[in-house]
Design brief:
Elements: H1 7-31, H2 34-60, H3 75-103, H4 111-138, H5 142-171, H6 175-203, H7 210-223, E1 229-238, E2 241-250, H8 256-273, E3 277-285, H9 289-292, H10 299-310
Helix pairs in contact: 1-2, 1-4, 2-3, 2-5, 2-6, 3-5, 3-6, 4-5, 5-6, 7-8
Amino acid sequence: MNRPSLTKFAWLSVGAAVVTILLKAGAYAVTGSVGLLSDALEGGVNLAAALVALATLKYVERPPDDSHAYGHDKAEYFSSGTEGTLILIAALSIGVTSVSRLLNPQPLEQPGLGLALAVVASLINLAVGQIQIRTGKKYDSITLEADGHHLMSDVWTSVGVVVGVSAAVLTGLIWLDAVIALAVGLKIGWEGIRIFWRSLRGLMDVPIAAGEQAAVADVLNRYQTRGIAWHALRTRQAGARRFISVHLLFPADWTIQQAHDLTEELEADIRRAVEHANVFTHLEPLGDPVAMNDTALDRPHAQDKRQKDAG
């Protein structure tokens, strides 16, 4: 895979998390706002997630080996799944704290300074979050992309907190701070569920993107003009890697060398059409009844069934 090391971006996230935690903790210390406390707790989640992302990216960069012949890329889904879980834990903590403060409201102190610190922290998260998202999409890293979206969620969360504290100060309704904090907890919880679901889909070997599947089919269809056919196309994704398998059917009068040479050419075209593709082909005789019907997704089960029916 021609992908540069992405660990420097994870280190950027770690540094940003440390700085924003200090800023948000300071904001809470001078105001006593539960909303700003919830924001500081979310900063702690950001730091934990950044450290998990850093460790994951270091692991993913290892080349395939005897123990992991298909690479280590799937570890990215464990990273984003862990991040989703941490977000849910933070959301629960924020919810409990918000309800407690809603039942026992307390006046806010020095809101101006606290809000200023929160705004600075949000601007840092905004800048780093955008960098993570762009880099994650560019290099197809769900770890960086999830981390970036998490930071952007934190930005919007901070906006909500600033609005809540401001509303409480302007109206004198100090319970508004707790209500906004509770809404923040719900928003964070939803983000955690979304990230966790995306990670689960990756672990379940869902197909590659529809556009990439279409690109593979276009390559295969072009080669049909040279006298071959294809079927049983299967795809899956693991991090940045794409795994593509397909059955190629050749005329009976072709030599093994002819079929091999054309297959090598076809696989190279697929790799050019789909970045980071690992292509696996199975050659079959065109016109053979068994080969023509060999399209089952679960081949071992289908073979056992054929043998049982024949017996």
